[in-house]
Amino acid sequence: MPGTREGAIGRIEAEYDSGDFIGMLAERVAIPTESQEPDQLPELYRYLRDNIGPYLTPLGYDCEIFDNPVEGGGPFLVASRIEDPSRPTLLAYGHGDVVRGIPEQWRDGLDPWVLKQEGDRYYGRGTADNKVQHSIVMAALAAVLAERGSHGFNTKVLLETSEEIGSPGLEEFCSAHTDLLVADVLMASDGPRMNPARPDIKLGNRGMLAFDLEIDLRVGSRHSGHWGGVLEDPGVTLAHALACIVTKKGQIKVPGWTPDEIPPQIREALQDCRVDPGNDFPEIDPDWGEPGLSREEKMFAWTSFIVLAFITGRPENPVNGVQPDARARCQLRFSADVDPSNFVPALRAHLDDNGFEQVKIKELPDGFFPASRSDPASPWIPFAVESVTKTQEKPIVVPNSAGGLPSDIFARNLGVPTLWIPHSYTGSCQHGPNEHILHHITREGLRIMTGLYWDLGETEGLSG
To answer: Strands across the sheet with 436-438, in order?
Structure first.
């Protein structure tokens, strides 16, 4: 008797309920794949070679590990299963690396490298970002294969191990291996749901530009008693320069940094979006940012300016002196509706117009990635929405993620629409201590992806 969609979903539910999936995840969490620590490079290779490869190979995948073309980057794994070149080809993406474990900051009883359940939560470094998410993808593919005997489509899985340090080498790898990675659509799982109670589909990501603002007035500090009130204080000057960029409530004042308007189709899509960060999140100031916009419009369709760090003198050991210099590390997050090539020239003109000619703008070598958004008219979007609705409930369609995803790399090099279907939530503490996933989102994610892959095997393919 041929398999059924319900049978495939039943298989993945049984795998989760038995504890087998969580046991597999525990093995992956135990590998300390800290890409921010150069000494952990062998662990990045071990994760791909000794864990992911042996999982996919018995499923009929040809697996190959590639060195990163960029010095300091971790390896890539590409797994391919080609059933019929005339059938649609799926590209799945994930990252096996994690941020630093920082075990000393975790709550008593928790260890970043030991998966531990407490109530609805599973704690461990990399659970939310990204090990549970690509584990869900691979387990769902396995469930469809076991039920149907085939996928009904072709699959390529790309796992990188440098995402947490900005994905060095990913652009070069995709550009050099377009034939290996060619596909009809990218469906990947990364980032958080905007609401833990409801699935969502994101069509891209906001971009990022980081830069330093610097003011260097003299060599060495001067006695604050003798010269305070006479010599220009670079910390004060730079603080005022920052204040001319945004208001005291975070509204951007630099012309050209924000969209002329939010496109009507994007504004309409965001009407169905409600951000729920979870119980442990700090209170959000409703008056921060651009007046007149909803929280969702600020997060997904507007530009934000953030001061990541600000230093003058030596805060750890202050001296009584007027300091010689000051520096701030700044960051912009922006949507696909603005031109990032104008950001630095516009800031230079704005600072000059406000009397801050002595403030220098220093662009950073790894301080930029572009915004990207799949065409909302792509037929892959209603296909995915219908499938997720059939399995769980109607998902929220979000025009783009608020955070960083490599959508642009895939869209530009491979020409594929990108759909991100996340299985975490904004309160997961990713990148911090006590990172965790939620039981119900994990189980729902397994069901959703299994149903989606089953439906993909029954389609003749979609264009656009």
So the answer is: 116-118, 121-123, 436-438
